[in-house]
Amino acid sequence: MCFPRKDSVRRQAFSLIELLAVMAVISLLMVATIPAFNSMGPAYRLGTASEAIMTVLDTARMEAINANTTVQLRIITGSAAPVEAQYRAYSLWKRNKTDGTYAQTTKWEILPVGVTFESLDDPSLSYPLSDPRYAGTHVLNSTLNNKNTSAYLGQSVGTTYVECYPDGSVRLPALAGSSAYLLMKLATATTNAAGTPANWRQVRINALTGQLRLNTPPKS
User: Fold this and answer.
1) How many Å apart are CA 150 and CA 155, to the nearest integer?
2) Tell me, what CATH number does 138's domain have?
3) Residue 181's domain spans which residues?
């Protein structure tokens, strides 16, 4: 029977110095990558939020077509609502064809931490108002007559809505033109590779067809 030589056995193990060197390299790599992960976090949450809103609008549109009734996406905008829900909570409501009342069909969802719906076209977002690819009527424009009240955690709160109709269209009261949009932003700004602020996403709605488009900040 053959036994391995003692020196060959010793070579299979790491010395303390080698282990310390490996740990030092791992520590340096972690220090270098953690800032990158932190910067990705807000942008990831914003992207996830905008995609979720597109999915909800698609769901509302299909439900309106299938049920042959109006379905509203409601967003809590009233100042009487809890702070964590203002411009962050949303749900779907379906119209009863018999009496015209609306019933909530999905629970209230909250946008990810640090993400809100934008109530105005904030100049600090570097939003391209003059670019026709982004043009349209802002759903949360305070001058529109698309306001109602909804029940949230046992209290009545002010909400703003966008409606999906059985013909597949998505409409707003006093809609100027054929497009509307929802704008979402980060509480703290980040920048994209080109240096342009990347702290917003636009969900653009074709009011006639209901088709959706996700717009991101244009690269400079």
Assistant:
1) 8
2) 3.55.40.10
3) 16-215
Structure tokens at 66: 């299938």
| 9 found inside a domain | no
**Sign, CA torsion 171/123/78/108:** positive
Query: For the segment 170-214, what is each residue's pLDDT rounded down to a tens digit?
Result: 887 666 568 888 988 886 654 444 444 457 899 999 988 899 999
Q: Can you tell me the distance from the alpha carbon of 72 to that of 85, in angstroms, rounded to the nearest whole number? A: 18
User: What pTM was computed for the model?
Assistant: 0.77
DSSP structure string for 38-95: HHHHHHHHHHHHHHHHHHHHHHHHHHHHHHTS-EEEEEE--TTS-TTTTTTEEEEEEE
Angle at 149 between CA 146 and CA 152, to 5 degrees: 130
SS3 159: strand
Q: How many domains is the chain built from? A: 1
DSSP state of 210: -
